[in-house]
Amino acid sequence: MSEQKAAEFVEADGLATVRLNSPALTGEVKEELLGALRQAAESTTARAVLLLGSEKAFCVGQDLAEHARILEEEPEQALTTVREHYNPIVQTFESIQVPVVVGIGGACVGAGLGFALAGDVRVAARRAKFGTAFTGIGLASDSGLAVRLVRALGSARAMEMMLLGTTIAAERAHELGLVTEVVDDDAWEQRARELASVLAAGPTSAFVAAKREVRSASEGGCDLPELLEEEADLQNELGVTGDHVGAVKSFLNKEKPVFSGS
After folding, report:
1. Which residue has the higher pLDDT, 166 or 108?
2. Could you tell me if 148 and 118 are in contact, meaning their C-beta atoms sit under 8 angstroms apart?
3. What is the pTM of this model?
4. Which residue of 61, 144, 231, 242 is 20 to 30 Å from 89, comparing CA positions?
5. What is 7-200's CATH number?
6. Burial of 164 (0-12, 13-18, 19+ CB in 10 A)
């Protein structure tokens, strides 16, 4: 019987699934997660990506036992993992053009929160907890967490979570907009997979364009005339796709559209 990998990649029916089986991030876990995410990002057939954590915890961030050992043996190497692992992981998330659904079954802390916020849709179990954790061990954040918290919550709420180390329950996270949906503890994975499958069967080119528009709108310095031009360019491209033409015909015929992703 083969040993379970810390992070796995599987693709079927247009859905690429990345599963993180180890909630604490050792160097090996980060390498495997990065490899699995790159497979998802480089896939030419995936129409959506599903990121899942383990059963009781999504991701609790850096493995502190490993970190303590490195601090003692090679202190100058203790935080090189930010450039070697965390930054490439987040950049790979950013390179995924299709929708990304994140299933969160439990604790989502530190870098784990950064990873979860790198997705587009988040489904959380009721038992899930969310926190930053970095200042509690004398560090600032990594994994793009600060910018994503500000975009999701605004600067005041983001500052509260970062400075005070506030832990947020799933229902509160939903109220604040950190997660899309909260479900029973035994249903989070099924619900996340359902949403990801719906997206994988949808108008892929339109989803890619919508992600691009939202990212442009959320970045500082992008003004309205630029956004209007981008919208016009994208609509011209989408207007000749088979999915758009077919969906309009289906609407007029009072039929449910079937999208091929083209």
Report:
1. 108
2. yes
3. 0.94
4. 231
5. 3.90.226.10
6. exposed
